[in-house]
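Bug #77: duplicate submission created two jobs. Keeping one. Sequence:
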Amino acid sequence: MKFTVASLLTLVASVSAAPALQSRAAGKIWDGRIPESTTLAEFDSYSTSRYGAEYVLGQGQKWSTVLQFPNVAGSLFDKQVSAKPLEVTITDQSIFAPGGDVQSGFRRSELMPITNNGEAGDNFAKGVTTVHFSVQADTAKPLNYSHEYQIVFIESADYTHQIFTLKTGTNHGSSLSTSSRTLRLSTSTANGASAQTLHTVPFGVAGSEGWHNYAITNDWNKNTITVYYSRGDAPLTRVVSSRYNNNAGKGVFHIGILKLPTGQSSNVVKQGYQPSGINEGLIYGGIFVEDSSDGTVTLQ
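Kept job's structure:
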């Protein structure tokens, strides 16, 4: 989705990452899975976190108060390396203000890989890469499906568009419907293009509980996208064959919750309705990025 501000984020400083986990996934560019021994306080420091310690958070917040370690079994790719799931939450305090520019229309908490800045030479957006992640709902911290939530996406380095977006909830400007309780993966919005839905599955309803696993391959040279998906511990299978996707602008990988307001507005970043007293969360796991230049995609 293209937002009407010059900049949504401040670039994360490029600093050394914490030691990577060992796994069976060959050609790994970055590993965001969480070792069992990790404490929440480690996310507050660039020297101990695999993610940026300051972004994207509400003013004055720290990751140690925004993140939680939920009591759920690890995802498909967590179990291979004895990693644990991670929950990202939003509250009334989740108002991002980059450079003092308060985004009062949003509620957002998004993790970003510590070494990913989307600029020239960034291995996250070079050649052919595959981002892996798993997500599940938390019934104790339910989302408000009358809102649109962008829960995983790659945002262009100049903040003007997104390369792909995984959403749930009601699309901004639309009415609540049965499609609101789905996960919807959509295409690039480069050059003002309208996002097209690539893949949809039920979410937040009976029968959709547990892990939803994704691997999304982007060919940054050929401008294509390929999508793999599974439930639970099942191996990933291809659900979207390689097709055109405008990957211009490279990008930064976001994992977390960006909640849009409801109501009509010319500037959703700063205007619109957000209810008070919220305590919402999503559980993530199995997050890593691999080099797929040789055609390899880890499926199990």
